[in-house]
């Protein structure tokens, strides 16, 4: 199938098999290798990208279903040489060790900060909940870090979220 994707602000026409995941298309056809293939089952979050500003596991999304959507990968977070505030905070707070999960963590954090609203751990449901460490951990729970850099990830997100 011939489709056109809008990836990181660039229109990309591609001929794609209807069974191909968005992750495989991004990595293998478009050369955007920032999103990682961790589990390929939607359980680790290493492949997280933003589709129309919402967090999506690219390994579970079919590429053909994304026609007309705005897809943002970790490569599209920065503005030229200027890092996204979360990228800068991850560096400042050493929020990664091996770095494999970092692209998914970053995309998920960008989406999470834009979402707002209550989570499973929010005590007061009225108004916008305070972005506590517990709130961040709950909202980022779909992104796993095998190295255990969670304390620094939470600190980086909290700094930007404030």
UniProtKB/TrEMBL annotation:
A molecular-function term among this protein's GO annotations: oxidoreductase activity, acting on the aldehyde or oxo group of donors
Record key words, sorted: 2Fe-2S, Iron, Iron-sulfur, Metal-binding, Oxidoreductase
What pathway or pathways are given for this protein in its record? Answer: Alkaloid degradation; nicotine degradation
Q: Which residues form the 2Fe-2S ferredoxin-type domain?
A: 1-77
Keyword match Cytoplasm: no
Q: Which Gene3D superfamilies match?
A: 3.10.20.30, [2Fe-2S]-binding domain (1.10.150.120)
**InterPro entries assigned to the protein according to its UniProt record, in alphabetical order:** 2Fe-2S-bd, 2Fe-2S-bd_dom_sf, 2Fe-2S_ferredoxin-like_sf, 2Fe-2S_ferredoxin-type, 2Fe2S_fd_BS, Aldehyde_Oxdr_Iron-Sulfur, Beta-grasp_dom_sf
One Pfam short name = Fer2
Q: In terms of domain of life, where is this protein from?
A: Bacteria
Q: What is this protein called?
A: 2Fe-2S ferredoxin-type domain-containing protein
* Protein's organism: Acrocarpospora macrocephala
């Amino acid at each position: 199938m011939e489709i056109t994707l809008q990836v990181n602000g660039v229109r990309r026409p591609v001929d794609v098999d209807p069974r191909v995941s968005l992750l495989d298309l991004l990595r293998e056809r478009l050369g955007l290798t920032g999103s990682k293939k961790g589990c390929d089952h939607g359980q680790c979050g290493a492949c997280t990208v933003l589709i129309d500003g919402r967090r999506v596991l690219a390994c579970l999304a079919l590429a053909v279903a994304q026609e007309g959507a705005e897809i943002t990968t970790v490569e599209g977070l920065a503005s030229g040489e200027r890092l996204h505030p979360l990228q800068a905070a991850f560096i400042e707070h050493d929020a990664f060790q091996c770095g494999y999960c970092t692209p998914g963590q970053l995309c998920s954090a960008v989406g999470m900060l834009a979402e707002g609203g209550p989570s499973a751990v929010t005590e007061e449901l009225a108004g916008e909940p305070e972005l506590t460490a517990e709130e961040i951990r709950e909202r980022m729970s779909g992104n796993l870090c095998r190295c255990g850099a969670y304390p620094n990830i939470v600190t980086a997100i909290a700094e930007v979220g404030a």
